[in-house]
Every structure is written in C-alpha cells, then in structure tokens.
C-alpha cells in the first residue's frame, strides 16, 4: 500500500479512530488506522475515508488485516462489499 498523504479529513479520522496515539502514528500504521475506521466508522466516516484514499487501500487492509481489529460483522460486510469471495476466516493470533 502507498503511504497515506496527510489531509485534514484523514487527520480528523485518525484522532477519532486511533485515539490512543497521535495522527502521525496513524499515518505510519495505515493498516491499523484503516481497519479501525472500517470496523467502527459511521457511514459518513467511511465515505470520508473512501473519498480520501479510494477503495484499493481498503481491499489491501482486508488482505493483510491486523489481528483483532475486525468484528465478524464488519469482516463479512467488507468482503461482500468488494466481492472478495469466499470470505476467509478472520485472522487469529497463534498461541
């Protein structure tokens, strides 16, 4: 995935969805940042994200999803939305 280009709208999303770090950290960890917005964001948040970066980074996040950042519902939704079928299992931590 290409690096995210900082913008006012992405920085606002970063402050809301990666609240435990500063926006610069979110830009440096785009898979976690984008996964959080995809999993927790409202319709408006998702539209802002998609306008800012397009759909390809969202698809890349699904292919390389960080463990623990998607609910089953969001995981299924995004795979169906992008017609990535069959839906693979959620990534799990190996014990």
What does this protein structure show overall?
The structure is a single chain. Helix 3 crosses helix 5 (56-63). The protein has one domain. The model has no long low-confidence stretch (mean pLDDT 96). Helices cover 59% and strands 0% of the residues. It is globular. It is mostly helical and 95 residues long. It is built from six helices and no strands.
Give me a quick take on this structure.
The chain has 95 residues and is mainly α. Helices cover 59% and strands 0% of the residues. Helix 3 crosses helix 5.
**Principal-axes shape call:** globular
Question: Strand portion, in percent?
Answer: under 5%
Q: In which range does the helix fraction lie? A: 55-70%
Distance, first to last CA: 28 Å
What multimeric state do the chains show? single chain
